[in-house]
Amino acid sequence: MEDRFMMLFSFVEISPVLAPAAFILFHVLRQFLFIPAAIVCIAGGILFGSLLGMVYSLIGLTLLCALFYFTIEKMPRVKQRLFHTKNRFLGPYAKLTVGQIAILRLIPFVHYQLLNLCLLERKPDYSGYLRNAIVTNIPLVFFYTVFGEFISRFTPAMAAMILIALSGLFFILREKVTILKWKEFFPEN
């Protein structure tokens, strides 16, 4: 096992351009391998250090969000499934705020592309969506890259306390106003 890490570290040292490009590409491809973004961010912190790991992870996640923006309209069945999942778990009238999405990105088992869909609902134009995607990815990248080595030492009680604190923040940052159209409130059938 240690030989594999030594080989990986030597690859990073030998190719200063190829290793970051491969890492950024891996961020884009990791969704097809069902690897959480948090694990890849932790690996970036270990391989490249905190600062470069954060930069490369942010670039990779931003590219992933841009790819989602351009491909989701070409896959209507996937978009329909994501909307169905969102409606089932959050309700049909829930519009998550950017702060809530940033908090949910910190929880590793929340579906990353579902959160991208919530961002797309919030700002359908490309520049607004990408700006919000970067803003919501910054806490994820910072937390898991810098504090990644300490997370593995958390006790289950400490992890539960962090999840409870994130749940409280999620509730505080919610949108306090919901607007229902007359036809939605009083259906005709």
Notes on the structure:
There is one protein chain. With 189 residues, the protein is an all-alpha fold. It has one domain. The chain is 74% helix and 0% strand. It contains eleven helices and no strands. Helix 6 packs antiparallel against helix 7 (112-122). The termini are far apart.
Q: Which helices and strands occur, and which strands form pairs?
A:
Blueprint: H1 2-14, H2 18-29, H3 37-48, H4 50-71, H5 76-90, H6 98-105, H7 112-122, H8 126-146, H9 148-151, H10 156-172, H11 182-185
Helix pairs in contact: 2-3, 2-4, 3-4, 3-8, 4-8, 5-7, 6-7, 6-8, 6-10
Radius of gyration: 19 Å
Residues in helix, %: over 70%
Shape: globular
Could you state the order of secondary-structure elements as H and E?
A: HHHHHHHHHHH
Structural class: mainly alpha
Provide the β-strand percentage band.
under 5%
Q: What would the keywords be for this entry?
A:
189 residues, mainly alpha, globular
Short synopsis of the structure:
The protein has 189 residues and is mainly α. Helix content is 74%, strand content 0%.
